[in-house]
Amino acid sequence: MPPDSTPEAAAVAALLRDALAAGQTPALTVISASMRPLLEPGDVVEIEPIDPGRLKPGDLVVLARPEALLTHRFLGFSGEYLCTGGDWAREPDAPQPAETLLGRVRTRRRGAAAIDLQAGPGARASRTLWHLAERRRRLVDSRPAWLRRPLRVGFLLAARIWLRLSY
Predict the structure, then answer these.
(1) Residues 113-122 pLDDT 10s
(2) What's the pTM?
(3) Bridge-partner residues for 105, per DSSP?
């Protein structure tokens, strides 16, 4: 086991793989803010199995990394590796082997409201927020440090308003 790995992460990943193989739809609770505003801490995501070759840039995926599970956006491939990143992160994640892919996020639940992120308004909202995040990375993160925070906050507020108006 790598030095930064945890037996808990490996056990949860094994349970999720078994559930997906049995045709179940496992649900996970989001604990980080790296995918704000689409996914907030406390949201519940349901995942479905998917072959890595069927992934499209912008899909939300769940990866089984040695230290923890990760729910981020699929950005593309680098050879045999999956490239992912959080919408709110400044930099993409380190590329991961395709074997780390557990599944694709199908649904986000926040309270009693559920949104299908693969079809209809939920899919459009997810894709639009992905494009906003990419623009924010290009336009904001290249600015001087004193200007980054206000611009990042402005982008987050605009994305939250857009998300509320789109449902």
Answers:
(1) 999 999 999 9
(2) 0.86
(3) 47
